[in-house]
Description:
single chain, 526 residues, alpha/beta, Alkaline Phosphatase, subunit A, Arylsulfatase, C-terminal domain, ten-stranded mixed sheet, globular
Amino acid sequence: MKKRQARFPGKPMMPQVFRTRFGAGLLLSLSVLLQACQPQEQKPAKPNIVIFYVDDLGYGDLGCYGGETVQTPFLDSLGKAGIIFTDAHSVAATCTPSRYSLLTGEHAFRNKAEILPGDAPLLIPEDKPTLPAMLKRAGYTTAVVGKWHLGLGNGNVDWNGIVKPGPLEIGFDYSFLLPATGDRVPTVYLENHEVVNASKDDPIMVSYSQKLSGYPNGLDSPQLLRQKADTQHSNTIVNGISRIGYMSGGRKALWRDEDFPEVFSGKANDFITKNQDKPFFLFFAFHDIHVPRVPNEMFAGKSPLGPRGDAIAQMDWTTRQVVEHLKKLNLLENTLIIFTSDNGPVLNDGYDDMADKLIGSHKPAGPFRGGKYSAFEAGTRVPFLVAWPGTIKPGTSQALISQLDLYRSLAALAGVPLTGNEAMDSEDHHEALLGKKPDAREWMLEESYTMSARQGSWKYIAPIPESKKVPSFMANKGVESGLGRAHQLYDLSKDPGEQKNLADSLPDMVQRMQQYIERIVNKGSK
């Protein structure tokens, strides 16, 4: 795509690759771009590492995982060129805990992590070892681009000045962020420590407790909305979309949702270009396919699934822009690419974009039950693709693996010894990631609004106590919570949809699984 002079591009021209995505031309170009080279006996000592972290993408949302209604030709080719993991998991069924765990190698409950408001302080302590800080010890230059949602500052952020602590204080050399999420204020970009295009003449104010003047809100001015929203998402209106929270000022700094794919891929590619002569780590954290789903004009209205399907196609295109740039710079064969999601899928998550009404025969969770927020399998079982052309032999892996394991696995790959309680819940499974071993974890803990455990094909969901209520919002979103007062035990090898609870007939297995959870929660990972 031709590079624009504007810092934040407007409507882009539709690229030829999108116009021909169903044709032989696209399939040929993808084959040339991502064809697997003959694996070599000796791999590069320190590969570049790119993690694509999608938001709310379900196991069945990609063609290479069985999705038939969606169109994800590039990611399907990426999977074909690498390893498609069929039993890989986010650490939690919601976004902030999963991000915390991926970047620290420890369970989010150890820091009481939960979904954060847009003005929350930095969740990861500055003295906490992190994945980017660990890779810096091996000589990597590190960057995060995209959605953050791990808090910023110390609880009283001045959005018109220096915003810190943030990513740069926990191991990243460069950051370009949505400060929280697309459905929360402030609706501005943050580059390193400063809001992009902030003006002292129009100071930014943010509040999650009281109305601020300057912008209309969704409850008072519903006629201004492009998408109807629930009460929670009906505060400040920016770009025709109402958000959570109130904001005033910063008009020159406001984002346009439709620009996210070009802005983020552009910033990622700028970082890659500047650091192409040394090892780098890029954490590319998509906003897609999180709500509000406001796809670029290239994709709007193209999918029978509505905006959610359009956002999936947009995500596929965005991934291609970065991988293609790696190829252009002759970096692809020295780059380990990991593509995955922060939790399972959700259709109705605060905005009426017709996702639930246009779903048709598409199954976002594939054969599994539940989704985002849920303790059932689809809450954390997510797409997980690993590619390294010339090093990884293409194939499929049934290894049980958690995103927790990226920390120790990448440390082993980079030759970084870990110290003390660093990444205390992570396990080294780099050989499984590279396709050299068929197995990874024996046991795995999952977080939702309860704790769940996996051992092989066995899945256990711990009961919630009588004092704890099942969150009512799940029912409003059409999510099966998986929460209950009784023990739940399923054999996923025979019952992937978790329909037959075997807990009463296998009390010893239930006890063993419950003891595992208690051991991890009370004593750590050992």
